[in-house]
Design goal:
disordered N terminus; 25-stranded parallel beta sheet; 430 residues; mainly beta; Pectate Lyase C-like
């Protein structure tokens, strides 16, 4: 990797030329001083040359505590470990010509149990793993959500991999215990005032192992505030496209999320004040938008959710006071919009669905425009177009499971449903 070599040579030459007194600035070798806190990374003429995550991370770390802007030139950057963004940082590319591509996946078994609190893994084959790489640790009983351990490799000695963070579970080597280099492409962890914009994130799904969405995704935001993703393409990540957990004021806008091996967009674990606006979310294996736990006082406006494997939009646990307006939800595998089953105290109360177009869903298994499987109070469905235009897959406009409460439905235009515009579970064998 070239690290600002041209600039450094000029600094050294200039210093040596003045009296040959060895007064050159040594710390320039590790701390480049870039006017205006803007650093260009990439091809010839960049402040830091190199098309890989190390070059980008070096630039980010060089900004210091006050932050600044990292500008990525066009080209394909090989990502073997997540780009970790810090507070007050803008990461911007040159549009879809700036490609952050996940390197080939590596996986091996560990041959003795990996126990809670350990900082090492004894593995069958360490080939391909290197220090600085991020890994996930699982077994058959601990393979999802907060049961997965993640850490960076610090050292490898023979077949022992040392890591920088304690394992959070007891993992059994005789129950499918594995480690892989499945990790995010961009991480925003415990940071605020961060912007990611104008670039393409390529998950290289066919060459990578599946990543759990609570711990990583194409772009992963965790315990962070005031983060914006704008005009970004996230495609083919073997896991979730964009996941944000334990956050406030996260905005995802003007972006395209497609081809994910799981969910397209996943806000959860307490992420109020989320804003999802003007995105195309399509062809993801499960849901387009899965609103998980405690994503309240948020807005979902002007998006297109289509051709996802299950629901276009799914919401549930304490996901209250959310506005869904002017979205187009169509040709998803099951229901267009689903309010999943919850106990009354935890239901998604006071949500409003306004001026959306919901059509031709149920392409895989048959489904409904909107389904209500939750005793949510004060739900409003106003001014929507809910229809089947001839596909025959969207069986009803509004479907109410037995535990659902009535909703306020006004001025909706519903048509083309073979089982009727409004259907109740007690009246149907569906």
């Amino acid at each position: 990797m070239k690290k600002n070599i041209t600039v450094l040579i000029m600094i050294l030459y200039s210093s040596l030329a003045v009296g040959q007194d060895n007064t050159f600035i040594v710390d320039a070798l590790v701390d480049p001083k870039i006017p205006g806190n803007t650093i260009k990374v990439g091809g010839p003429g960049a402040d830091i040359e190199g098309f890989n995550n190390s070059s980008i991370q070096y630039a980010i770390n060089s900004l210091g505590e006050n932050g600044g802007t990292i500008i990525l030139s066009p080209g394909e950057y090989e990502i073997i470990a997540p780009i970790s963004l810090k507070s007050n940082t803008i990461l911007t590319g040159s549009g879809k010509e700036t490609i952050l591509k996940k390197a080939r996946g590596i996986q091996t078994e560990y041959i003795e149990d990996a126990d809670y609190g350990e900082l090492k893994l004894t593995v069958k084959n360490p080939e391909g793993f290197i220090p600085g790489m991020k890994i996930q640790v699982t077994d058959d009983n601990n393979s999802s959500c907060w049961n997965v351990s993640t850490a960076y490799i610090t050292e490898i000695i023979e077949n022992v991999i040392y890591i920088d963070d304690y394992l959070i579970r007891d993992y059994r080597s005789d129950r499918g215990g594995k480690i892989s280099n499945a990790s995010s492409i961009i991480d925003v962890i415990e940071a605020e005032n961060v912007v990611v914009k104008n670039l393409l994130v390529d998950g290289n799904k066919e060459e990578n192992f599946k990543m759990d969405g609570c711990n990583g995704s194409g772009i992963y935001i965790f315990k962070s505030k005031k983060v914006t993703v704008d005009n970004v393409i996230v495609k083919d990540f073997n896991g979730e496209g964009i996941s944000w957990q334990i956050t406030e004021n996260v905005t995802i806008k003007n972006s395209e999320i497609s081809g994910s091996g799981n969910i397209g967009l996943h806000p959860g674990t307490g992420s109020p004040l989320s804003r999802i606006e003007n995105n195309d979310v399509h062809d993801n294996a499960v849901d387009g938008l899965f609103i998980c736990w405690r994503v309240h006082h948020s807005k979902v406006i002007g998006n297109r959710f289509y051709k996802n494997g299950r629901y276009g939009i799914c919401t549930g646990h304490k996901d209250s006071d959310v506005l869904f307006e002017n979205n187009h939800v169509f040709e998803n595998g099951s229901d267009g919009i689903n309010l999943r089953g919850e106990r009354a105290i935890n239901a998604p109360h006071r949500n409003t669905f306004k001026n959306n177009i919901i059509e031709n869903n149920g392409k895989i298994s048959g489904g409904y425009g909107m389904s209500f499987n939750s005793p949510a109070e004060d739900v409003k469905v106003i001014g929507n177009t809910i229809r089947d235009t001839g596909s025959g897959t969207q069986k009803a406009g509004l479907y109410f499971y037995q535990n659902a409460l009535p909703v306020t439905a006004e001025d909706n235009d519903m048509s083309g449903h073979k089982l009727g515009d409004v259907l109740y579970q007690k009246d149907s064998d569906q």
